[in-house]
Automatic annotation (TrEMBL):
Cytoplasm listed as a keyword: no
Domain of life: Eukaryota
Signal peptide: 1-27
GHMP kinase N-terminal domain ranges (all copies): 119-195
Organism encoding this protein: Cyclotella cryptica
Protein name: 4-(cytidine 5'-diphospho)-2-C-methyl-D-erythritol kinase
Stretches assigned to the GHMP kinase C-terminal domain: 273-319
């Protein structure tokens, strides 16, 4: 009888241990363990400690095509555009402020960039507090390289980067879908930078259809930026609606995705804002015509509302190209490539 009783006790202990280990971690956890926290930004469980500071790359974008469809009753315009992230951008240093802080601290290296509440980085941080209900403040230092009024979405990228970073430092209270929804409150292009790097954007630019997988990373390009600025309102005010392209944007999108960036015919590289921008700045049109003569570039077009012109490919004579354009007074050249980000991670500088 004694062996039988011992055997029963052994079985009972085995069942008890098995029962404890089978309980879901969010339903029960011993006091010395922490529940595993899953998050929609990543398919994997996140057991890492919440960071207190981040250094984040803030990429810029180009518009592989940009169609202006119509003027809306609110005086904005409906557009359709294929956006692509590129590996030229800024760096945002973001950290938690001391626990007794009651305001964000913000600095920027570029002269002329506002450091008050009008800056999109500070507006993004405030939006995150409002939407999450977390009274957390930050110290932010923005190291800018992307020039203003370039058509590259530098400020929009800064805002999206700040939202992502704040969410990480807060412990990820928001999912990616929420960040995308909230970002539309700050501006038209911000939503794009929460994609993986390629997206078809409509509405004012805030309605994003991600392209997954994104266009292949690594495609080379040069961004040529004259020291000339054009505000987006000024460009739109010069828009001649009779000169808008008639091409169906869905057809343009399908062509780019089917043929690829290099093999897509030049006639599909359409930017409806080139006409008003070139009317405002004829020297910008002259610069594009010069770049079209450079051997090695597959496609040349202005990005967004200007004034940057991107050149897909690589010049045959790289040194000669840089001497001719980057060394010229009043012009800067930034060599870059297409980039994308991994699911659940932020963009990395190539």
């Amino acid at each position: 009888m004694l062996p039988s009783r011992l055997r029963l006790l052994q079985i009972a202990l085995i069942v008890l241990v098995a029962f404890q280990h089978s309980l879901p971690v969010h339903g029960f956890a011993p006091s010395h363990q922490h529940p595993t926290r899953t998050h929609s930004l990543s398919a994997e469980s996140n057991t890492e400690a919440i960071p207190t500071e981040l250094n984040l790359f803030s990429p810029c974008k180009i518009n592989l095509f940009l169609r202006i469809l119509r003027k809306r009753p609110d005086n904005f315009h409906d557009l359709a555009s294929l956006f692509q992230a590129v590996g030229f951008g800024d760096t945002l240093h973001l950290s938690l402020a001391p626990s007794d802080a009651d305001a964000d601290e913000f600095t920027c290296n570029m002269e002329g960039v506002p450091v008050d509440s009008t800056n999109l980085v500070l507006r993004a941080l405030e939006l995150m507090r409002q939407r999450t209900g977390k009274e957390v403040y930050f110290q932010a230092d923005l190291v800018k390289r992307v020039p203003a009024q370039a058509g590259l979405g530098g400020g929009s990228a800064n805002a999206a980067t700040a939202m992502w970073g704040a969410n990480e430092l807060m412990g990820r209270p928001a999912g990616l879908e929420e960040l995308i929804e909230w970002s539309a409150e700050l501006g038209s292009d911000i939503t794009f930078f929460l994609s993986r790097g390629t997206a078809y954007c409509t509405g004012r630019g805030e309605i994003m259809t991600p392209i997954d997988p994104p266009l292949p990373a690594g495609s080379k390009l040069s961004i040529v930026k004259p020291d000339l600025g054009l505000s987006t309102p000024k460009v739109f005010s010069a828009l001649d609606y009779d000169q808008l392209s008639k091409e169906d944007p869905e057809m343009l999108l399908n062509t780019f995705l089917k043929e690829g960036v290099v093999n897509t015919d030049d006639k599909y590289y359409i930017n409806d804002l080139e006409q008003p921008a070139f009317d405002c700045l004829p020297e910008l049109k002259a610069l594009k015509e010069e770049l079209l003569e450079v051997k090695g570039f597959d496609h040349v077009m202005m990005s967004g509302s200007g004034t940057s012109i991107f050149c897909i490919g690589e010049p045959e004579d790289k040194e000669g190209f840089m001497r001719e354009f980057d060394d010229r007074e009043g012009i800067s050249v930034f060599n870059a490539e297409f980039i994308s980000r991994e699911q659940g991670c932020w963009f990395k500088s190539p």
